[in-house]
Every structure is written in structure tokens, then in C-alpha cells.
Amino acid sequence: MNSINNKIALVFFLVFFSNTLIQAQEIIKDSVVAPVEKVQSGQRQKIDGVIATVGDYIILDSDIDKAYLEISSQGGSVKDITRCQMLGKLLEDKLYAHQAIQDSVKVTDAEVKGMMEERLNYMVQQIGSIEKVIKYYKKDSEEEFKTYFFDILKEQKLTSEMQNKIVNEVEITPEEVRNFFKKIPKDELPTFGSEMEVAQIVVTPKVSAEDKQKVIDKLNGFKKEIQEGASSFATKAVLYSQDPGSRSNGGFYKMTRKTPFVKEFKDVAFSLAEGEISAPFETEYGFHIIYIEKIKGQELELRHILLSPAVTDAALQEAKDKITLIKKRIEDKEITFSDAARSTSDEKETKANGGTLINPKTQDTRFELTKMEPVLYSQISNLKEGQISAPLLDEDESGKKKYKLLTVTNRINEHTADYAKDYIKIKDLALKEKQISAIGKWFDEKIKETYIKILGEYRDCTFTNNWLKK
Fold first, then answer.
1. CB contact set of 202 (below 8 Å; sequence gap of 6+)
2. pLDDT digits over 324-351, tens only?
3. 3-state helix, strand, coil in the chain (%, to 5)
4. Is the pTM of this model over 0.70?
């Protein structure tokens, strides 16, 4: 079981690493020149050159150094990663990207530009200015840096899309899960940490019609300025939108009918023509306007601005009074917590199942204490089973406020894996093992089919995959 867990940890390190690694990469144009050496001050120094080729992609010796730099810049340790291991990882990325192109995996320029804007905004926040970012990457101009960075991000996106394609095609049956569990020796069964099941009731402060109209008027003002050419939609979104998921890239989203947006948003988006801006409309998140940039078959490229009406102190107090009364009724045994959630909670996602929270990482109702989101942990860690919290004022990333009650409906102590009680976790482990096997088979097949060449001293490396085709 330890070897299984080690393999799982390795794969997910590799998947995460491929999405965050930023290295210099080039496409072969004409001929490939291997590293050469020059004499300087009586000493031999190696000049940067090609050390490996995978399909149409090349890897430079300096790519390994840049990969080390990226890990270090993100706070990771590189002391136990050899140059051979780093090259092995770069070879994997290149093969993923190469095969993505062969399989006609689509990555649009608009998608990459959206990623680039998001990453650049983050870099600027961390380093201080675009000039410092350009200097950090040793480029001469913003244009040169963006061209360089665009190619890197496009290849990263191709890599991640290819990985997802392989993994998402893997399915597992209950019988396979059962056989996986039976094969684990009793003394190697995993131990699962202490867990909780949590439920909540949410009361949202009411917003007056007057305050809603102020937001509608403001959005109509934005729309008029944009249509008259006084401002761009993207600029308005960056300056004013309260959607943390899209504000930094000018409100940009790509969506299809299957994209998990609320129904009201989808209905408006798919009713618009290319280049059209919607009238203000309301969802549970606030008021929006949408601008359709492009329509590509069943896919939309759009921008939107979200504004939420201000909540008055009187409305907040009214919400607090209401949720305090709900708490008293539950504690006086007039109504159960679950029934109160179904009849009084303002949160659509949880009220139907009695307020029970779903763990977004596992899609299970259990939350492992050591992996719980810190704010939630601080709110429920001291609650006994069945005890109800005091009314808690909660504010999300967009600034919307609400009151909530929390309760622990079940505590599960640390325990050795049990097939019946821990089926979802065991299924997840079994699926990961099957995904690892699928990835291994994929590499074996594609390495045989693809032109791969490793040069110089790196031919002496011992790789996990058969890159040298021995």
C-alpha cells in the first residue's frame, strides 16, 4: 500500500508541476545543433544547446536550469531533484504537447491570452511592476516577453488538456474497487484522519428596491459609456466588477451550454448576438451585464461585470434577528436543524438536503479536520456533535454578507480504512491507481511512435520511462 500511495503522490506532483512550471521552450525550425564548447581564459565552458528532441519540440540545457529556478521561486525545494529527473519531467511535458497536436486538441489564442493576463497580473502583484517581471525573465521588452510567455502557456495548456484527456477516459466499477481493497494486506490498510459532517442555515439580508435600482442605473451607465466609445468593457470590468474569478482578466469567460453557470446567466448569454451588450439582469450573486465578444458554434467568448447592491445596517440587523430566532426554535426542540434548513435557509445548494455541506474536494459529506478550509475549521472545531454555533457574519470574495448557523451532525474519529464506511475514499484510491496504469501504458505506446532523441551526457541518465528506447 505504501508503494501505491507513493506512486499516487508522484503522479499528482507531476500533474501539478506541469501546470505551474514555466520554462524556455522552442519549436524546431530548421536544423538542430547539439551543445558545443568554447575556450575562455584557459577553461572549457559549455554553450547552451539542444539536449533532447521530442517530435517537433526541443529541450535546451538551459531549460533544466530555468525549471529549477521556477521551483525555487515558488518556495519549493530542488535539493533532491537531479538534472536527469528534471529532464525526464520536461520530456513528459513535450510528449504530452506533441501528442495533443497530433490528436487535434484545441487551444485557442483567446484562451491563452486570458491565461496570460491572469498570470501577468499575479506576477506584477508579487514582483511589483511589469518592468520587473520582464527583467526577471531577462527579456528586452514587454512585447518580447509576452511572445515568449504566450508560447510557454500554450504548450502548458496543450500538456494539461492531453493529461486530462487520458485521465478522464478512465472509469472504475464497484467490482474493481472491491478487488482493489481486497488486495491490500491488513497491516497496510490506510488510516483516515478525524472527520466531521457539517450542516448550515443561511439568512441573507434583504436589499431594498431603491438600492437595487442604484446598481441597475450604474450598470446602464457603464453600458452607455462603452457603446459611445468612452471606455472598453474590459476596463470597466477590471475597475468595478465584483466577480473575483474574472475581474483581473477584464471579466472574460468562455462557456457552452454545459458550463456550470447559473441558469439566468446562461439564458441571457445565449440570447445575445455577437458584439451585443445585455441589459442589467439579476442572479443570486447580484446584477450583471454581459458583452458577447465571439460566438464559435456552441461556444461563447464573453465578458461580464457583476455588481452587488449595498446592504444597509438595518437589513443586517434584521437578518441577525431572524437567524437568532431560528437558533432558539431549534434549541427549544420546536423544529430540527435539518427541517429549519429546508424551510428557512436562503442557500439553494444546501437547503434541500437539510443544510448538509458537500466537501468540494471530494464531493463527499465528510470533511477531514487536517485538510479543512481554515475559516470553516475555526468555526466548527470546538462544537460538540449536535451543538449549534452562534450566528456568524460571513462575507464572500465579492463582498456579499450573510448570517449563518453551523452544526456538526457527525464526528468520525481517526480509523483504519473500512470498505463500507469509507467506500468513496477507497474508490478514489482505486481510480488513481488505474489512472496511473493508464498513463504508464500511454507513455509506453507514444514513446514507441514518436521521434525522440537525447544527446550527450544525458544519454547516461536512468529514466522512469523508456526515452532511450533500449
1. 345, 346, 347, 350, 402, 403, 404
2. 999 999 999 999 999 999 999 999 889 9
3. 50, 20, 35
4. no
**DSSP conformational letter for 277:** B
| Maximum separation of any 2 CA atoms in the chain, in Å | 91
CB 381 within 8 A of CB 198: no
Rounded to whole angstroms, the Cα distance separating 213 from 352 reads: 31
Contact (CB, 8 A) for 369 and 377:
yes
Q: What are the pLDDT digits (tens) for 99-132?
A: 999 999 888 888 888 788 777 877 777 777 888 8
For residue range 134-173, what is the model confidence (pLDDT) as tens digits?
A: 887 778 888 888 888 888 888 889 999 999 999 999 999 9
Q: How many CB atoms lie within 10 A of CB 289?
A: 26
Average pLDDT, the chain: 86
Q: How far is CA 25 from CA 53, 94, 102, 180, 419, in A?
A: 11, 9, 18, 40, 46
Burial label for 241, CB within 10 Å (0-12, 13-18, 19+), is buried
In three-state secondary structure terms, 454 is strand
User: For the chain, what's the residue count?
Assistant: 470
State the pairing for strand pair 401-412/195-203: antiparallel
Examine the pLDDT at 11 and tell me if it is beyond 50.
no
Cβ(153)–Cβ(119) below 8 Å: yes
Q: Using CA of residue 329, residue 333, residue 335, residue 337, what is the dihedral sign?
A: positive
User: What are phi and psi for residue 59, nearest 5 degrees?
Assistant: -125, 130
- pLDDT tens for 174-227 read 999 999 999 999 999 999 888 999 999 999 999 989 999 999 999 999 999 999
> In this predicted model, what pLDDT tens digit does every residue of 263-297 receive, in sequence order?
999 999 999 999 999 999 999 889 999 999 999 88
Cβ atoms of residues 277 and 223 within 8 Å: yes
Q: At 234, list the grid cell.
A: 474590459
- SS3 state at 76: coil
How far is the C-alpha of 207 from the C-alpha of 325, rounded, in Å? 20
Residue 292 C-alpha cell reads as 458577447
